[in-house]
Amino acid sequence: MNKKAYQTLEYYKITERLAAHAASAGGKKLCLALEPMQSLEQITAAQAETADALSRVYRRGSLYLAGAKDVRASLKRLEVGSSLNILELLDICTLLETAGKAKQYARQNDGREEEPDSLDPLFSALEPCALLSQEIRRCILSEDEISDDASPALRSVRRSIRTANDRIHSTLSGMVNGSARSYLQDAVITQRNGRYCIPVKAEYRSQVPGMIHDQSSTGSTLFVEPMAVVRLNNDLKELYLKEQEEIEHVLETLSGQAASCTEAIAQDYELLTELDFIFAKAVLAKEMKATCPVFNEERQILIKEGRHPLLDPGKVVPVTIRLGQDYDLLIVTGPNTGGKTVSLKTTGLLTLMGQAGLHIPAAQNSQLAVFDEVYADIGDEQSIEQSLSTFSSHMTNIIRILKEASLNSLVLFDELCAGTDPTEGAALAIAILSHLHKMGIRTMATTHYSELKVFALSTPGVENACCEFNVETLSPTYRLLIGIPGKSNAFAISSKLGLPGFLIEDARGHLSEQNESFEDLLSDLESSRRTIEQEQEEIREHKEEIRSLREALEKKQEKLDSQRERILREANEQARRILQEAKDYADQTMKDFHKFGKAGISASEMEAERARLRERIKKTEKKLSQPKEQKPKRALRPSDLHLGDTVRVLSLNLTGTVSSLPDARGNLFVQMGILRSQVKLSDLELVEEAVITAKQFQKSSTGKIKMSKSASVSTEINLIGMTVDEALAHLDKYLDDAYLAHLPSVRIVHGKGTGALRKAVQGLLKRNKYVKSYRLGEFGEGDAGVTIATFKQE
Question: How many beta carbons lie within 10 A of that of residue 755, not counting itself?
Fold first, then answer.
């Protein structure tokens, strides 16, 4: 496609927004290089990838692929047998770990059986090479440090280095604190050129035999390597050389292992970059609340409630645009700043986005056509350098479009043939549009010319549209109305702004009778349209109300029928049980009386047996009786409640915590587990909290102390050993509990490590609305391995 249309329709701003959502450098390059496609098969595949990625984002969250490092240069070096340095090996390790995380992300599910999608082959093809990444992590601790356990030889050399260092320090410490103390400038051991020295005063140089390696700027201090440690320093120097040799050997070994996986590593980079690009499209679609368009090869456009993606989402007015079904030429008219150009740009930009595989900000089931070219003549293209006026510049562009446009093109004109004599401009515009219409090219044009409105009304396959304008408020509504020609509203606007009436009447006198009648026709059409729309809206509201009432009535009737059947069934079953129990009691009583009579049982014993039977009947009646409605022990007043108090919601029979104080109507919010609900003060009952004796806290006092939530919430949380995601989830819940427990501050233990967990913790604290401030721990508090957070006090 021609790049001029991309610039005119601001397509590159969309690719820049897309690149902002990619995490890797390779993914950003793919985003910036994205261009519309002309193959329906390719477009459909790209849209399916975006839709599948968006579905995964909604189910599992975004896939972060910043670790997809570009290691292709390192792989080239491995292919020719070179060894890699520490940074290159760490980049390969990060890439492989990212591939492993992406594969794990693909395996996540919420317990439901999931249908295969277009991204499964990409995830399945990833090869994390876990053994290689684990070996690199084991041997390389950071960009500047190789682990002692990287090889037995390296461990042995470093042990010898530590021993040599200890011997040198021991020897020099004996000199510094003993025989040579009076000859030294300071009682310290220092290094010069990698060799241990002591600072000797210049005048005592002969008293301390050894090699001079440096002197102070004033010359008063000489840095001398005593003869007693020369051999030890030499040995230490040799050990450092051996250590470097062993490090090179370790890197060479790791490079050899990486060389055997170059194909898998290269494939992982390509796949992760592609996935980063696809998920960037999905995140952009989520941000714009976009949907997947339906493509057709009939060159038909149906954008439902489309929104220009570069306008403020809170202010943009959705427009519905149809083209290519009953007409192939749409002429949009209306006042300036009414939204004509926005509608034109929305059509062109959404077409480009859709053909690039991006979702479009429009309602579901919007339709787009696959065009070979999109041409746009929009904006002021006056050229001072080429001595072209606005009209000449536009005409030059229009001539190029007429030469290149084909049946499978989309052509967009803004203010066609404006900037010249209105009569000639209108005639030229009609001739150009007629030519395109005869060729069957899908065209959309905006204009102020009344002649074009008549042309659209009188020509089959051509349709009028207008951008609605409210004359009462002198402001556009930005709604696009297809089938109705727009009116300039010049007289009405001038009158509202205060132009004298006699001038307006004089202007009307200059209008031809035909033009005036045409404007009156437009006014009548507009009035009729508004009346019909208002009546249709009222009918729709009445229908919706009737439907809602009918559904509510049907549901209520179904519920009543169901309850009636259940109550009757339970009542019959209960009555049957009661009758059976009464029959059993009667039979047993008759048997007992006969038995007691034959056995000669006394009257007192028979009375006791009858009392036992009466007690059983009372218990049965108690089970059948309705429980009394639970009422609060006493009416609560707003002053009785405080934030964090434990209460019982009587209507729900649930216990919760007060999270807001009662308002003027007695309503407040109570947190019951994961449920936060608004209840009335009269529906609450304070729950007595557990008490413990003061002995458990201090021996010198007596009485009882009311336990608060702070007694069960620790002032410290330990996150060491957790992943960043696990740690943030635990920390988020802990901060909520600690804040509700009225703790003034908490201690968060995250360790030093690489600093990733500390950075994530402080990022969460920065966003938390309860946290007033935070700082790293001081000496004695844990240093950089601990963060102290202080809460806001209410």
Answer: 11
Residue written as token pair 């179904």: 558
Please determine, for residue 81, whether its predicted confidence score (pLDDT) is greater than 50. yes
pLDDT at 103 over 80: yes
Q: Residue 382: which pLDDT band, with cuts at 50, 70 and 90?
A: very low
- CA 133-136-138 angle, to 5 degrees, is 110
Task: Tell me 625's DSSP state.
Answer: S
CA distance 8 to 411: 13
Contact criterion met (CB below 8 Å) for 329 and 458? no
Lowest-pLDDT choice from 51-60, 96-105, 698-707 = 698-707
> DSSP 3-state helix, strand, coil percentages of the chain (rounded to 5)?
50, 15, 30
Question: Helix (H, G, I), strand (E, B), or coil: what is residue 111?
Answer: coil
Q: Which two tokens stand for residue 450?
A: 């009344």
Helix or strand or coil: residue 26? helix
Residue pair 359/50 in contact (Cβ under 8 Å)? The answer is yes
Rounded Cα gap, residues 188 and 168, in angstroms: 13
pTM over 0.70: no
The bridge status of strand 691-693 relative to strand 745-749 is unpaired
Range in 86-90, 547-551, 578-582, 646-650 with the lowest mean pLDDT: 578-582
pLDDT of residue 433: 92
| Vertex 739: Cα angle to 733 and 742 (nearest 5) | 145
Phi, psi of 757 (to 5 degrees): -65, -40
What 3-state DSSP class applies to 281? helix
Task: Return the bridge partners of 790, or none.
Answer: 745, 773
Which phi and psi (to 5°) does residue 720 adopt?
-65, 135
**Contact indicator for 322, 444 with CB cutoff of 8 Å:** no
d(CA 545, CA 551): 10
**Mean per-residue pLDDT, 368-380:** 88
Q: What are phi and psi of 379, to 5 degrees?
A: 90, 175
pLDDT range class, residue 312, cuts 50, 70, 90: confident
Are the beta carbons of 43 and 370 closer than 8 angstroms?
yes
- Is 310 in a helix, a strand, or coil? coil
* Nearest to 346, CA basis, from 472, 232, 444: 444
Answer for the pair 385, 314: CB distance below 8 angstroms, yes or no.
no
Residues 67, 248 contacting (CB under 8 angstroms): no
CA distances from 293 to 290, 311, 317, 361, 370 (A): 9, 20, 19, 9, 11
Say what angle helices 25-32 and 262-288 make with each other, to 10 degrees. Answer: 60
Predicted local confidence at residue 521, as pLDDT: 58
Q: Tokens standing for 215?
A: 């002197």
